[in-house]
Specification:
The complex is a heterodimer of chains A (254) and B (365).
Chain A (H helix, E strand, L loop, with lengths): L4 E12 L2 E12 L3 E5 L6 H8 L7 E6 L2 E2 L4 H7 E4 L11 H12 L5 H7 L15 H13 L5 E5 L7 H16 L3 E6 L2 H7 L2 E6 L2 E6 L1 H10 L13 H9 L7
Parallel strand pairs in A: 3-8, 3-9, 6-7, 7-8
Antiparallel strand pairs in A: 1-2, 1-4, 4-5, 9-10
Chain B lengths: L6 H18 L1 H20 L8 E5 L8 H8 L3 E4 L4 H10 L4 E7 L6 E8 L5 H19 L8 E8 L6 H31 L2 H6 L5 H31 L7 H28 L6 H15 L14 H4 L3 H15 L7 H21 L4
Parallel strand pairs in B: 1-2, 1-3, 4-5
Antiparallel strand pairs in B: 3-4
Helix pairs in contact in B: 1-8, 2-6, 2-8, 3-5, 6-8, 6-9, 6-10, 6-12, 8-9, 9-10, 9-12, 9-13, 12-13
The chains are: A alpha/beta (254), B alpha/beta (365).
Chain lengths: 254, 365
């Protein structure tokens, strides 16, 4: 099956003064996949993401998002993407319904707040303030705000950082659901277990360079083929499996 | 998806969200409504205390060489005013901004001096203060002429009817002006700083909204809130304290228009503060540097006429001085906006200056 690319990044460079945060990276994201940008903190993941999201100026390079050039059509791109920022806050003193209403206005469309909150299972929190939510609920609400404009692509910057195992699994399900409805998802994370089970393809970013793009399975197969072996015999379950087994998969109101 | 994107709708969405947020924020309610009302209440009840001076207009035809006038000059609480035309004096006497007009005539036969005094009902207690001061002077002059039963001087008094100038008529416009200053400076500074720091603005930028929509939406919300607050203060003043509104609803409307100009200018200071401040704890010191001097020097509590001469030019440079002045003229003297065009012009000049600075200092992220 020929994959159609929805985001193309060519030779992207971003310098902050003398510091080269992104050093000429190129990659493609295919339509309908969950694409992971993986790498340690400070690798340039967020910078790359924010340039694609039209939030940051690039130094050089070419980017097309859903057929629109980022230099000439940033406005059209903004209408077609949904963005979740790392650690972004929301307008103070408003409840979730009112925030959805605000974002609908920003996109110039009418959306029913309850319908949006239903997508992320937060209808019972419609009258709650953002800061009263638990970590998992906050992330799910953030994702709800990215879906208001029926975007072609959503960008999620470390959505699972700081969440407990149940909330994390719950969020994975939500992200898969979004993909299954035809939306492309670009996600950053530094949890490899997460990328392995969630992402269709991943790119490794380190020191401002992309050092590999492939499916998680291909990466693992290649490594194994090269003669790699884990130093210890692999256990048949992990401690996380034990935790989930003992406390249940059900996501709970924290 | 393909329908035309509306900046207007986006602006209104921000205005609505911002207004909701302001109404729910305790600090904005306290600054805009509670503080002014507390001050009005306090000053409304301790009114009348502490007469500072009796302002006496001296008629052009007054004989300044006579002993009565010379003695009056030495009375410290009496302030003699020469620099007004007869028409201004009459109108000021009606309004109570001067307390009496004196015109001492020299006669060829006894009594050699006649002091014509015109009081106004608007002068209130000050009439009695001036009267007793004059009585003292006359008593001394008449007693010191050795041979004379016929008195050398006499007093002729008349009282015109004037509008009573109540404490509330002075205090309310000052408090209103200060409330507009606070909400304009603090409110604007805090909201833009916190939206910037908490990345709310950055998140907005990921939507198609235009920058000017964000600024205008916020401004609409803040201005609406400030004007509703102003109306509330004026109505409480009117019905609870008898605040004078010469032309009724028209006066209220004029006051609200002045408030609008005022709050727009003051918001300019707020934009500057939000650009300069690094974090939320540096907002109050910087904002206070702007609001406190105006609070003290712009005639919020005392007429700037009682300040020492060297301080008055500073007072006359501050925008709040002109807003307070214009509000008082409109409310108590029934001035039209044309009559206060000088005050409005000074505020507009401040507006141009401060927005020029704001454009240079404002930060989006």
């Amino acid at each position: 099956m020929a994959k159609k690319s929805i985001i193309t990044v060519k030779n992207l460079v971003k310098n902050y003064g003398d510091f080269n945060a992104v050093k000429g990276i190129s990659f493609e994201v295919y339509e309908g996949e969950i694409f992971g940008l993986l790498g340690p903190n400070g690798a340039g993941k967020t910078t790359t993401l924010e340039i694609i999201e039209t939030l940051r100026e690039k130094t050089s390079g070419e980017i097309t998002v859903d057929g629109f050039n980022i230099d000439t059509d940033a406005g059209s791109i903004k209408k077609r993407i949904g963005v979740q920022l790392q650690a972004a806050g929301y307008y103070p003193n408003l409840n979730l319904s009112e925030l959805i209403e605000l974002f609908s206005g920003l996109y110039g469309i009418q959306r029913s707040p309850l319908e949006m909150l239903k997508k992320v299972a937060l209808t019972d929190k419609a009258k709650a303030k953002y800061k009263e939510l638990s970590g998992g609920q906050k992330q799910r609400f953030s994702i709800a705000t990215t879906l208001i404009n029926n975007p072609r692509i959503v960008f999620l910057d470390e959505p699972t950082t700081g969440l407990d195992p149940q909330a994390r699994r719950n969020l994975w399900d939500l992200i898969r659901e979004i993909r299954d409805q035809g939306t492309t998802v670009v996600i950053t994370t530094h949890y490899m277990d997460e990328a392995e089970v969630l992402c269709d393809r991943v790119a490794f970013v380190d020191g401002g360079n992309i050092i590999g793009v492939d499916t998680p399975d291909n990466f693992i197969d290649k490594l194994v083929a090269s003669g790699f072996e884990r130093p210890k015999e692999v256990k048949l379950a992990s401690l996380e499996d034990v935790f989930i087994n003992m406390t249940g998969k059900e996501w709970r109101a924290e | 998806m393909n329908q035309e994107y509306s900046n207007f709708k986006a602006t209104l969405a921000i205005a609505k969200a911002s207004f909701r947020s302001i109404v729910r924020s305790p600090s904005s309610v306290v600054f805009t409504l509670l503080f002014p009302l507390i001050f009005i209440l306090v000053f409304g009840f301790i009114s009348g205390g502490g007469v500072i001076s009796v302002d006496v207009g001296v008629a052009k035809t007054n004989d300044t060489l006579n002993p009565v006038y010379q003695a009056l000059k030495k009375v410290s609480i009496v302030k003699l005013i020469h620099d007004q035309t007869p028409e201004q004096m009459q109108s000021n006497l009606q309004k109570g901004t001067i307390d009496a007009i004196i015109n001492i005539q020299k006669n060829t036969v006894a009594p050699y001096f006649t002091a014509n005094i015109e009081y106004s009902k608007a002068s209130g207690e000050k009439e009695n203060i001036l009267r007793s001061a004059l009585n003292n002077i006359f008593y001394e002059i008449n007693a010191h002429i050795p041979n004379g039963p016929p008195p050398v001087a006499e007093i002729k008094e008349t009282t015109i009817s004037g509008r009573e100038y109540k404490t509330i008529d002075f205090i309310l416009p000052g408090q209103l002006g200060f409330a507009l200053l606070s909400t304009g400076v603090f409110g604007t500074a805090f909201v833009f700083l916190s939206l910037r720091i908490t990345l709310v603005i950055k998140r907005f930028f990921a939507t198609p909204v235009k920058r000017y929509s964000i600024v205008i939406g916020e401004a609409i919300a803040r201005i609406s809130f400030a004007l509703i607050g102003a109306l509330f203060i004026i109505l409480i003043g009117k019905f609870a304290f008898g605040f004078t509104l010469v032309h009724g609803a028209v006066t209220v409307l004029n006051m609200l228009l002045l408030s609008l100009i005022g709050v727009v200018v003051f918001m300019g200071f707020g934009f500057v503060v939000s650009g300069i401040a690094k974090n939320e704890s540096t907002v109050p010191p910087i904002a206070n540097m702007i609001t406190l001097p105006q609070f003290l020097l712009s005639g919020t509590f005392f007429s700037i006429n009682v300040f020492p001469a060297w301080l008055q030019p500073i007072s006359r440079a501050l925008p709040l001085t002109y807003l307070n002045d214009a509000l008082r003229k409109v409310a108590f003297e029934g001035a039209s906006l044309m009559d206060v065009s000088h005050q409005v012009l000074v505020m507009l000049i401040w507006g141009v200056v401060i927005y020029t600075v704001a454009v240079k200092t404002f930060k989006w992220e």
